[in-house]
Design goal:
By secondary structure, this protein is α+β, with helices and mostly antiparallel strands. The protein is about 20% helix and about 30% strand. The chain has 3 domains: about 220 residues, Beta Barrel (Thrombin, subunit H); about 90 residues, Roll (Pdz3 Domain); about 100 residues, Pdz3 Domain. The strands form 5 sheets. Strands 1-2-3-6-5-4 form a 6-stranded antiparallel beta barrel. It has a 6-stranded antiparallel barrel with strand order 7-8-9-12-11-10.
Length: about 500
């Protein structure tokens, strides 16, 4: 017979051993997990990031279009880029055939007298944006920002205002290069490679829309290669990043902080459709702008279109690629080598022509006088021709005014560059001013005058100068005439459009 006590002891011992082993295993697993979580990661000091030049191709690169917007720190990008973005003030005098485009709403209302005409001999002050591309002060902007300007000033991000000169301009692509001179190197932007852009890629724009300086907006690339004005050269980047009047000439920046476009145009029908010139298009003309101030482009003198399946079928063409000649300009290089309508140009110097856009850009990038070897197909037969390129004709423009339009009699320096009308009981009813107000209505502000520099607007009413009432032109001339060259005058004004009074300061010039 078994002893009950001994049997119970054996059972208890076995249970204890099993329990102990189980607990030991569980504790071991928990300790292993704890140690794996708490083990400090191996730290490797990162090497300094190498600056990637626009033409360099990293071995591995995540496409910008695949970067989530939340992973892009546009605050850092804006902080790096803002010092290179500048505000451009362009001023012209006299009647202009075309008003400076980016006026920011500064000039505007009709002449207060019925015999006046809007825009006749009115000062023009346009504002736009630009960005420094090197430490020497070269600035890229739009041609239409500086078009017709007789004086350019550039305001830097640090508050300095510097005079600028036009280095070169290209109306065909709306690109301009201007330059400022400053002591020491200037901050500048890094130019990217716009050929790597993809639809859907995140971008940001920096500019001065409606005079709100250094405004940053964010969006995506909506389309690449948009045609707007000149189908033969246009290759605009479309974006939904907000672009408004005053943004023109500012940078469009990719997620790596590189400039990939120059903001240039905006749709009037929608607030989220803007357009930028690809930076590679600006790169292609920079050298000519710096050396000669203008851009010369090669020219054949033919009108082209792409070959599509319908065209191929209807004309029974042997190929579905190339550029079909639609018309040939008489006397042009194309006419001299015998090009005719329905010819299909398939290669230039042995390089295939897939689209007519590519052919036009290829020819336009070459210098006039150079020779291109064309291969084309006529009635199923391949023909080769050597064509000597001419210079591409410039587009007709009305932007150059005659000397007669630009000249006018300057107001005497003692009058600050203002044309004034006395307001009294006989004519006060013709103006929207408070009852009983008297003063001098500013009918005209001479461009480039000290009054224009001081921000005196047409339509304002001068009430006092240096706290002295000026109810007549004689009183105005007496106060201003007593000032010495370089004195600062405080003009107390009433601004009808805002229904408020303001003080503007004007520094007198040497007589």
């Amino acid at each position: 017979m078994h002893c009950p006590a001994a049997y119970n002891d054996r059972v208890m011992t076995r249970l204890f051993a099993i329990t102990t082993a189980t607990l030991t295993a569980i504790i071991g697993v928990l300790l292993g997990l704890l140690l794996s979580v708490q083990r400090p990661p191996q730290l490797i000091a990162p090497e300094p990031a190498a600056r990637v030049e626009p033409d360099a191709s990293p071995a591995v690169e995540v496409p910008a279009a695949l970067i989530a917007p939340g992973s892009i720190n546009f605050a850092d990008i804006a902080a790096r880029m803002n010092p290179a973005v500048v505000n451009i003030d362009a001023t012209a005098r006299g009647r202009r055939a075309r008003q400076l485009v980016e006026d920011g709403g500064r000039r505007g209302s009709d002449d207060p007298f019925t015999q006046g005409r809007r825009g006749v001999d009115m000062p023009r002050r346009g504002t736009g944006t630009g960005f420094l591309i090197d430490a020497d002060g070269n600035i890229l902007t739009n041609h239409h920002v500086i078009e017709g300007a007789e004086r350019l000033t550039v305001k830097l991000a640090d508050g300095r205002t510097l005079p600028a000169e036009v280095v070169g301009s290209d109306p065909d692509t709306d690109i301009a290069l201007i330059k400022v001179t400053a002591p020491g190197p200037l901050p500048h932007a890094t130019l990217g490679d716009s050929s790597k852009l993809r639809v859907g890629e995140w971008v940001c724009a920096i500019g001065n829309p409606l005079a709100y300086e250094h405004t940053v907006t964010v969006g995506v690339v909506s389309f690449i290669g948009r045609k707007l004005f000149d189908p033969s050269l246009d290759n605009y980047i479309q974006t939904d990043a907000a672009i408004s009047f005053g943004n023109s000439g500012g940078p469009l920046i990719n997620s790596r902080g590189q400039v990939i476009g120059i903001n240039s145009a905006v749709s009037r029908q929608a607030s989220n459709i803007g357009f930028a010139i690809p930076i590679n298009q600006a790169r292609a003309v920079l050298k000519q702008l710096k050396t000669s101030g203008r851009v010369e482009r090669g020219y054949i003198g033919v009108t082209l279109r792409d070959v599509d399946p319908d065209l191929q079928a209807s004309l029974k063409l042997s190929r579905a690629d190339g550029a079909l000649v639609q018309d040939v300009t008489p006397g042009s290089p194309g006419a001299r080598v015998g090009l005719r309508p329905y010819d299909v140009i398939v290669s230039v110097d042995g390089q295939p022509v897939r689209t007519h856009d590519r052919l036009i850009r290829e020819i336009a990038e070459r210098q006039p006088g150079s020779v291109a070897r064309l291969e084309y197909v006529r009635d199923g037969r391949t023909v080769n021709a050597q064509v000597k390129l001419a210079e591409r004709p410039r587009q007709p423009t009305d932007r150059v005014a005659s000397n007669a339009e630009r000249s006018f009699q300057r107001t005497g320096p003692g009058e600050l560059g203002l044309s004034l009308i006395e307001i009294d009981d006989s004519n006060a009813h013709r103006f929207d001013i408070p009852a009983g107000m008297t003063g001098l209505l500013v009918q005209r502000v001479e461009p480039l005058s000290v009054a224009d520099d001081g921000g005196i607007e047409r339509g304002s009413i001068i009430l006092e100068i240096n706290r002295q009432p000026v109810n007549s032109v004689a009183a105005f001339r007496r106060v201003v005439g007593a000032a010495r060259p370089g004195d600062v005058l405080a003009l107390y004004l009433y601004e009808p459009e805002l229904d408020q009074r303001a003080i503007r300061t004007v520094r007198t010039e040497s007589r």
